[in-house]
């Protein structure tokens, strides 16, 4: 029979098990009454019999993302992440409660004058449908060697997580620091349905993938404008896999006038949702049925939400990065969309890696793609950037590219 052992803690306990063997709670192998849990990134020991728990305090900005007991049950080991320093393994003595840093993944390689620290933001979602709150982490530009002109506002790159039910990560991310150190703010987005805000919030995305994620990303960018944090003419968006889909969908289905984003980048993003439903790997088979609609019975909904079938609505520049070994989102999807956009006169670029699959793994390829993405934005926003180590052929690029005036005032 089922028993609720602790119902007073109104925080997220679990997370999607996208990796085999992952768990966010762990029973003590030598004490059947004791379970290690992670409440919103904070570790605690929970008593099954009494429902009481003992929460441990980590360092400033630190969050636990994984837990496991030692075989003798005497120690609890945690993977701890922070946006300010590399991840580490922490050891907790279950008897005394003493916390020790057990192993560091690396040294601090970003000096404080260049380290952008995120600030959590919360904003209202659109009133239609299921109004509520969406969230994100804002990383302001920071470079100790440079100062922006007085009265200017920075561009912002809105990052869309994958899943689509994953969440923005608070682990140190040098790719985010790459942009913030070069004058571009980052907004790491958690839309309705992201993990980390409870079951009810997570379930909001059921049957609404391709609706709420788009609405919230558009609203998130405009929220930053309303707060006077970023330049309304220089809003960018980027994502990989399902985040790449949301990026493409925002650029396709945005009905704002003028459109919100000046440009975007898709990393192995889904262009055709029907193809995903038909050919996805076994681990995620039928997952789109819960996120979009029953397939093939409601195939019309898949087509209505697929950017590939609405390219005539796609107006703003976009760069595609694609691995040719990708079995989850085959290259034919992005190739077809790129070709269609190019032929209709849309500014776009298409870059492939013949030794990458779904999710780039090799450091040299990650660097080339990152430099290429930054170079693409420099051409779209009209600033100087060094030539990347990989060719970025941009189709339909005007001779002189300047950011379009959006006719929407900053606060």
Give the topology, please.
Layout: E1 25-28, E2 31-39, E3 42-47, E4 53-55, E5 63-69, E6 75-82, E7 85-93, E8 99-104, E9 119-124, E10 133-139, E11 156-160, H1 174-180, E12 185-190, H2 199-202, H3 212-226, E13 235-240, H4 242-253, E14 263-267, H5 273-279, H6 287-291, H7 299-304, E15 318-323, H8 331-343, E16 348-353, H9 363-381, E17 394-395
Parallel strand pairs: 11-12, 11-13, 13-14, 14-15, 15-16
Antiparallel strand pairs: 1-2, 2-3, 3-4, 5-6, 6-7, 7-8, 9-10, 10-12, 16-17
Description:
This protein has 411 residues and is α/β, with parallel strands linked by helices. The protein folds into two domains: 25-104; 112-395, Alpha/Beta hydrolase fold, catalytic domain (Rossmann fold), CATH 3.40.50. It is built from nine helices and 17 strands. The chain has helices at residues 174-180, 199-202, 212-226, 242-253, 273-279, 287-291, 299-304, 331-343, 363-381; strands at residues 25-28, 31-39, 42-47, 53-55, 63-69, 75-82, 85-93, 99-104, 119-124, 133-139, 156-160, 185-190, 235-240, 263-267, 318-323, 348-353, 394-395. The strands form three sheets. Strands 9-10-12-11-13-14-15-16-17 form a nine-stranded mixed sheet, sandwiched between helices. Strand 3 (42-47) and strand 4 form a beta hairpin. Helix 3 crosses helix 4. The longest helix has 19 residues, at 363-381. InterPro entries: AB_hydrolase_fold, Peptidase_S9_cat, Xaa-Pro_dipeptidyl-ppase/CocE. This is Peptidase S9 prolyl oligopeptidase catalytic domain-containing protein. It comes from Clytia hemisphaerica. Residues 173-382 form the Peptidase S9 prolyl oligopeptidase catalytic domain.
